[in-house]
Q: What sequence folds into this?
């Protein structure tokens, strides 16, 4: 009877921090999820480990969160810049 390959620890870390980035650790969790996800997928490709779906999910959650944070930051800076410009010229 064949046993499934062991799951990559980095894949589990990626998934856990990807979820945490949305509920408790906004930017730090996303960065950890992305780094761990890339490490996990590299390890999985090089060895007989499982967990590629976990790593991919962590990567998606992490990158999506970072993208939303970046868009929010750009919007905030844009609104702040317009307000500052209006205050200086008006």
A:
């Amino acid at each position: 009877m064949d046993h499934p390959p062991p799951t990559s620890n980095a894949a589990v870390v990626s998934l856990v921090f990807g979820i945490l980035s949305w509920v408790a650790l906004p930017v730090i969790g996303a960065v950890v999820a992305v780094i761990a996800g890339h490490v996990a997928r590299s390890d999985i490709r090089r060895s007989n480990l499982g967990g590629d779906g976990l790593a991919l999910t962590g990567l998606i959650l992490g990158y999506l969160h970072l993208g939303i944070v970046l868009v929010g930051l750009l919007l905030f800076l844009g609104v702040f810049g317009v307000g500052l410009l209006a205050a200086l010229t008006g």
About this structure: DSSP finds three helices and no strands in the chain.
